[in-house]
């Protein structure tokens, strides 16, 4: 391996510490930032992420609430939960854990969240604000990627960036953020012709396609910075107790990419931990905006 490892766990720990300091500051001004996370159903991975969000929120000194609805919850029940949280002055951030069960209309739920409390940055108002270069709530995973890129590369101005994947959660907002930092941005996807050749042009590669190990070293320009957003759980044998062992892999084939890249994020331990760190940062930002307090520096885009 020749690439520098971009350690998302260490970076996230620094953000958590900064957020905790800033939470103490806003508490001295008489306000406690509050985050409500809504989980519908029993998806095991979602339950782990939601627990982790609650734990981290507490550790930062924030108020934390978890609202669980059964897997067969109705759209009305979910919308009522969101409406209650919108009206609750103790709550500055609302997050509905995705994916939702398929009978629910996720777009309608997200767009029912008060945009000022939309700490996921998925509400159509925040999407529009980000796209037009205005102050927005910025989606947590792309924000975490941007922070790592800025720290590693300094200015992104003029750099060729290729984002692989066009999801609303990662690909599109990531492209907007890179554009905001004056990178030259291409969004590539499943229909892109000669994807390896497109990726080979890039100084910055952000892989967010959800296809394990798809990006290989021969796609990477020597010295490029590779941000792997993929979180793919793969079978990895059987444990002594007979249950399946799994391991997480990214969208990049780590060994071959690390042999060519200048820097790379691992999976696990790269982008994932930054997602929760940025959620806390966004909740703090939302709280400061709601109460007219100074926003912490370096925790927004
Ligand atoms: N409403 C939202 N739903 C989802 C989001 C989101 O940002 N908002 N993102 C993902 C899941 N997610 C947070 O919700 C998330 C994913 C992964 C990690 C993380 O720390 N991953 C670790 C590995 C953890 C493991 O072993 O499973 C890592 O990569 O090192 C945190 C948060 C989908 N839903």
Automatic annotation (TrEMBL):
Record field: catalytic activity: (6R)-5,10-methylene-5,6,7,8-tetrahydrofolate + NADP(+) = (6R)-5,10-methenyltetrahydrofolate + NADPH; (6R)-5,10-methenyltetrahydrofolate + H2O = (6R)-10-formyltetrahydrofolate + H(+)
Natural source organism: Jannaschia ovalis
Protein's UniProt name: Bifunctional protein FolD
Keyword Oxidoreductase: yes
Pfam name, any one: THF_DHG_CYH_C
Domain Tetrahydrofolate dehydrogenase/cyclohydrolase NAD(P)-binding stretches: 139-289
InterPro entries, per the entry: Aminoacid_DH-like_N_sf, NAD(P)-bd_dom_sf, THF_DH/CycHdrlase, THF_DH/CycHdrlase_cat_dom, THF_DH/CycHdrlase_CS, THF_DH/CycHdrlase_NAD-bd_dom
Family: Belongs to the tetrahydrofolate dehydrogenase/cyclohydrolase family.
Keyword line: Amino-acid biosynthesis, Histidine biosynthesis, Hydrolase, Methionine biosynthesis, Multifunctional enzyme, NADP, One-carbon metabolism, Oxidoreductase, Purine biosynthesis
Tetrahydrofolate dehydrogenase/cyclohydrolase catalytic domain sequence ranges: 6-120
Subunit record text: Homodimer.
Enzyme Commission identifier(s): 1.5.1.5, 3.5.4.9
PANTHER family recorded: C-1-TETRAHYDROFOLATE SYNTHASE, CYTOPLASMIC (PTHR48099:SF5), C-1-TETRAHYDROFOLATE SYNTHASE, CYTOPLASMIC-RELATED (PTHR48099)
PROSITE patterns according to UniProt: THF_DHG_CYH_2
